[in-house]
Amino acid sequence: MSGHIHTSQCSQLLGNLSEYIDNDLQAELCAENEDHLKDCDNCRIVVNTLRKTVDLYEQTNMKQVELPDAVRERLYLRLELKDFLKKS
Ligand SMILES: [Zn+2]
User: Fold this and answer.
1) How many C-beta atoms lie closer than 10 Å to residue 37's C-beta?
2) How far is the CA of 59 from the centre of ligand 1 (A)?
3) Counts of helices then strands in the chain (DSSP H, E)
4) 4-31, pLDDT tens digit by residue?
5) I want to staple 19 with a disulfide (CB 3.0 to 4.6 A). Which of 25, 27, 61, 85 is the partner?
6) DSSP letter at 25?
7) How far is the CA of 41 from the centre of ligand 1 (A)?
8) Among 2, 30, 34, 4, which residue's Cα sits nearest to residue 16?
9) How close is the Cα of 21 to the center of ligand 1, in Å?
10) Model-level pTM?
């Protein structure tokens, strides 16, 4: 078992990680990252963790988007959920 190793490939992957997660990376570099991820548990964990964080962040942002009241009202009416509308 080789244990904890840092190679130049790790540095390269970590250097272009945000582009990789965003699928903004050149195909060639992307393929290099994927090859490296097959061999490197450390980088795989980093990528998985970052992906989950990004997903959570995006979900949280979605929840922060408030529907305007008029839109919400129309939507609820259409769904026959108007009893659930909170009149304030
Ligand atoms: Zn690595």
Assistant:
1) 19
2) 28
3) 5, 0
4) 556 788 888 988 988 898 889 999 999 9
5) 25
6) S
7) 7
8) 30
9) 15
10) 0.58
The dihedrals phi and psi of 11, each to the nearest 5 degrees, come to: -60, -40
Q: How far is the CA of 22 from the centre of ligand 1 (A)?
A: 19
Contact 37, 47 (CB under 8 A): yes
- The whole-number pLDDT of residue 1 equals 42
Instruction: Give the distance (Å) from ligand 1 centre to CA of residue 11.
Output: 7
Residue 16's identity, in one-letter code, is N
pLDDT in tens, 26-65: 999 999 999 999 999 989 998 998 888 888 777 777 666 5
Inter-residue contact 21 to 54 (CB < 8 Å): yes
Q: How confident is the model at residue 86 (pLDDT cuts 50, 70, 90)?
A: low
Write down the residue that tokens 């963790």 correspond to.
Answer: 49
- How far is Cα 37 from Cα 31, in angstroms, rounded to an integer? 10
